[in-house]
Amino acid sequence: MKRINRLADRRYSEPCGFSNEQARELALLSHEIGRQIGLLVDRQGRPEMILVGDPSSIYIPELPRARQSEGRLRGLRLLHTHISGENLSEEDLMDMVFLRLDSVTVVASNPHGEPDFVQYAYLLPPESGAKPYEQLPPVRWDRADIDLPAQIKALEDEFRRADRTRDTTDKRERAIVVSVSQAPKSVQERSLDELEDLAETAGLKVEGRLIQRIRKVNPKFIMGKGKLAELEVLALQADAEVILFDQELSAGQMRNLAKLTERKILDRTQLILDIFAQHATTKAGKLQVEMAQLKYTMPRLVGKNRALSRLMGGIGGRGPGETKLEVDRRRIKDKLTKLGNELKKVSRQRGFTRDRRARAGVPVVSLVGYTNAGKSTLLNTLTNSGVLAENKLFATLDPTSRRIRFPSDQELILTDTVGFIRQLPKELKEAFRATLEELEAADVLLHVADVSHPEVGEQIEAVQKIIEDMELQGVTEILVLNKWDQLNEEERELVSNTYPHGIPASAITRRSLSSLVEVILEEIDKAVTRHR
């Protein structure tokens, strides 16, 4: 043991990572104890940690978060022995990737405890192709021809060059979006397109994407270690702080991924919750957001550890946060009960408002549609109001109602609602029921569809499915074929044939809405007649 401890007094500062004498010492020691020996060495050649494993592997404990260097790598390299003459193992390479080590060097010994060969591996810089790392072929232990310090300096220089090309005024967190699913790659690509839009809405800057089609989900990490290593290198090269999954992750998967990658892990559900948290403005909206966040958080409560902030911090630290994670389940349940009661009060108040409208005989037209389809823009154009209408998903989260009077003296209430979306998190479906209660008072549903979107058909189906779930099929629905001006003649003909009852319109142009207004007034007359 004393001989092993004395390894800490050595300086491993040779360009190849060790001297001939040091290679002999490591090989002999490892042979005598029948175990692998490893050293984590800093860039000055000083051993930071001595590791003793078993005959076939070594275990590297959790390392401090603080890096030994100013660059993206940790500033440590692994030098260790193999006593059975085997090459670098997959475990060696995974350690290098996930711990962001400068390099991994294996000194393999022969059956007599003498050095036999040496093998190196190191990460590759951005734009280096598909390979995330370079694994050099084995060479005789005393003929290693490599300059590790120069290699690492070149790699860090490449990272710095990539940083200089990045917009330094953009302070958004950088993210990699990931899809792991049994669905075909083309389906995953389209879903990631939407996830990227959601990420941009949430304030993230997407720097890359990764797709894996799987037969079976890995219960621990959702994806296999090999693909996970590819993801980690992609995140390292992009200097991404966030990894965003399109699929909902279990509590265990989130913890494992956060611990392994040392990055903030988000899934689609958490991202949508975060967007709602940013945009909710009314009391009802804020109550609904908090309820949904707590329901999402409760099964994911974990003990306080280093992965905590990466696990549940949200984007820019929003969301329930660390203090709420430390709250026990009973207190969360009590809080949910309290929020539910408050939400019922708000819902009753909305009900009174709807009753007053009904008694006043003012018909209600509710705008529905897939998120970012142009509902708020249409409301603004029809009413000359200033409702927020951004080219972002979920720009509208609280119901917005405006009264409008037509030249025929017909008055009606136009109500804008939260945009629908596929794979809406179950926490939101229930919590935001009050938001969609406005639809129950509607005489007409104005279903706004973005016909310029490549997946308009799937979006229309998603909206109609939610309408069915709310048992609103009996309410008259007018399909508005918005952004008609962005289609060419061939595309218009195709859309017209597919949706013959749809009304072409461009929400930003008032003169394009005359046909739509006529249809609205006709349907309102029919609805009023039915209710008499």
Automatic annotation (TrEMBL):
PROSITE patterns: G_HFLX (PS51705). GO terms for molecular function: GTP binding; GTPase activity; metal ion binding; ribosome binding. GO terms for cellular component: cytoplasm. This is GTPase HflX. The lineage of its organism: Bacteria, Pseudomonadati, Thermodesulfobacteriota, Desulfovibrionia, Desulfovibrionales. Belongs to the TRAFAC class OBG-HflX-like GTPase superfamily. HflX GTPase family. The gene is hflX. InterPro entries: G_HFLX_dom, GTP-bd, GTP-bd_M, GTPase_HflX, GTPase_HflX_N, GTPase_HflX_N_sf, P-loop_NTPase. It is found in: Cytoplasm. Keywords: Cytoplasm, GTP-binding, Magnesium, Metal-binding, Nucleotide-binding. The keyword Nuclease does not apply. Its main location: cytoplasm. It comes from Maridesulfovibrio hydrothermalis AM13 = DSM 14728. HAMAP family: GTPase_HflX (MF_00900). Coiled coil: none annotated. GTPase that associates with the 50S ribosomal subunit and may have a role during protein synthesis or ribosome biogenesis.
